[in-house]
Amino acid sequence: MNPLLQTDQLPNFEAFHVEHIVPAVETLLSENLAEIEALVSIKEAPTWKSFVEPLEQLSNRLERAWGPVGHLDAVKNSDEWHQAYSDCLEKITDFYTQMGQHQGLFKKFQQIAESAEFEQYSLAQKKVVENALRDFRLSGIDLPKDKQSEYKVLSQQLSQLGSQFGNNVLKSTQAWSKFIENEEILAGLPDSAMGLLAQLATQKEAYQNKKGWLVTLDFPSYLAVMTHADNRDLREEVYQAFATRASEMAQDPQYDNSENIEKILKLRHEKAQLLGFEHYAELSLATKMADTPEQVIGFLRDLAKKSKPQAEKELATLTAFAQKELGIDTLQPWDVTYASEKFKNATLSLSQEKLRPYFPVTKVLEGLFTITETLFEVSVKEKQGVSVWHDDVRYFEIMDAAGQKVAAFYLDLYARENKRGGAWMDSAISRWRHPEGALQSPVAYLVCNFTPPIGDQPACLTHDEVTTLFHEFGHGLHHMLTEMENFDVSGINGVPWDAVELPSQFMENFCWEREGIDQMTAHIETGDVLPDDLFEALQQSRGFQSAMMMVRQLEFGLFDFLAHATYNPIAPQPVLELVNQVRQEVAVIMPPDYNRFAQSFSHIFAGGYAAGYFSYKWAEVLSADAFSLFEEEGILNPEIGVKFKNTILAAGGSVHPMTLFKAFRGREPEIDALLRHSGIKAA
């Protein structure tokens, strides 16, 4: 049997081969279509049991077979696998479009919504039906046949363009590297970074017999150079390579995404207008908490207004320091990270490298799990012997207070070749009650790109990497600690995108508190927890250049939203022009003309954040305010932890996030906690 179709067990990654993909997808889709036609043809009035439950079974099987294909495209990419994935993505997109425009399905859901049975449904069941009816309308169910065909073509093209965009970023990132034989060029890099670059060189066949160091654009390597390299020319060269990835300005322009961006924005606009929306930003908000484009733009601009004056002061202070202490007359973008690290060390006696030995991976994981166990009344245990896609990957199970398994997750922590950059959580299996009664427990993929162990030295994380791990684990908890049993509102399914970041950003807060730090630090040589002087410096550093970081995020959010909200099909504004316009308004650091950040902005052109990047800041208002209850009642207060689990995490997508927030906090959210955590004085 095709191993991808064995969906009653965990994925058998070692057994999956590229030739399995197309037959598995074709079999699955034809069986699903046949089953759907059979369901629709039943004469009797539909009920939850006769209609919705069988549909949930089909959704579950599709997730469990197709999910690993997309996952492996991201973590173990090859040209052959990506080609098969792209070919099938077309079929999958086609299937979902067909389902979204299926009059028979739509009518059955309408019948259910109008039935007497509907009144007896749980909140979760009602939400499943309401979301389905909304999604039919957002898939063009009300359109005439010719317009439905147009919608189908647009969806197909957008799906392919998004996949191509992401693949171009990966390929372009890997196309550039610099082999260095003269150690002096790398002066300033700490031993951990030198070890990483030496290891990267030995992994490349071309350099195996040479002594040297390989700089790549994978994030651990890029960041090491930008933070520590004394050689300004090297920093500029690496910055330019990174800032021009997947563009016409790249050293290898074959992966240029410029045309893809133009096509994506054009087709999204057409899709939105086809559905009766003014522009794509309006369509995006149809499934989010935020009500109107004006509200989102106002929110971002208000935060920018509060943050920019402080960001300008922070930059002026850094510029003065760089001139006086580092001899850098004109501070350039490739100097900012380097000068900031020196400035932080000079003013706070703190650097990422000073903190790193206190955060060995094993201790950080132990701390993360202890905090999770204390707050949410669960335990986390590693399980051996589970099929994985790489030797670095580990598998853990989560048990409830009675020792019953409630969830599990794969953990893939380190950067490597042929693995997409960034960090993310994805669903491997969703929590769901089978019609015959069995409860399927959820499984998550947690993926990061941290600096790998060097030689036989255990891996130690920077504090930034620690907060990233907690962030992704927060997404994982949202997926894994759900108590929903209906597929479409289980875990993060059905959660508005501008609320999905609440649990992830909430978890980051524990990385800044003494109670959390004590659980996750043990010096690699002495075993000591982080001492008070370093902890105080760490806490002070939370506000270090926080306004500069805030306006950087607002630049991304505003560019994304305006690119979709102000799109003019007759005379589209050049993307570069819009980027510069947004920078003039909110940014304090002006990059060089060759900078092409949009060409590698995968979140919005290849991910789920189109006209939705504002969600990070929107949800941070909620997460900071939610965490302030722990600040009031006790950072590791189990009672408040269980309350958070039973409201925010348990409900999945079954209840509006604002209702859940108010149930947890007892009031509407306030922005004060976000500004306080960010070290920004409310103007």
Automatic annotation (TrEMBL):
GO CC, sorted alphabetically, is: cytosol
**Which coenzymes or cofactors are required?**
Zn(2+)
What InterPro entries does the record tag this protein with? M3A_DCP, MetalloPept_cat_dom_sf, Neurolysin/TOP_dom2, OpdA_N, Pept_M3A_M3B, Pept_M3A_M3B_dom
> What does the Swiss-Prot or TrEMBL cofactor note state?
Binds 1 zinc ion.
Q: Which residues form the Oligopeptidase A N-terminal domain?
A: 29-147
Q: Name one GO molecular function term.
A: metal ion binding
Source superkingdom:
Bacteria
Q: What is its EC number?
A: 3.4.24.70
> What UniProt keywords apply to this chain's record, in alphabetical order?
Hydrolase, Metal-binding, Metalloprotease, Protease, Zinc
Which reactions fall under this protein's catalytic activity?
A: Hydrolysis of oligopeptides, with broad specificity. Gly or Ala commonly occur as P1 or P1' residues, but more distant residues are also important, as is shown by the fact that Z-Gly-Pro-Gly-|-Gly-Pro-Ala is cleaved, but not Z-(Gly)(5)
Hey, what's the signal peptide range on this chain? none
Annotated Peptidase M3A/M3B catalytic domain residues: 225-679
Q: Which Pfam families match?
A: Peptidase_M3, TOP_N
Which biological process terms from the Gene Ontology are attached to this UniProt entry? peptide metabolic process; proteolysis
Specify the enzyme's EC class, one word: hydrolase
Protein family according to the UniProt entry: Belongs to the peptidase M3 family.
The name this protein carries in UniProt is oligopeptidase A
Source species, please? Hydrogenovibrio crunogenus
Q: Taxonomy-wise, where does this protein's organism fall, top ranks first?
A: Bacteria, Pseudomonadati, Pseudomonadota, Gammaproteobacteria, Thiotrichales
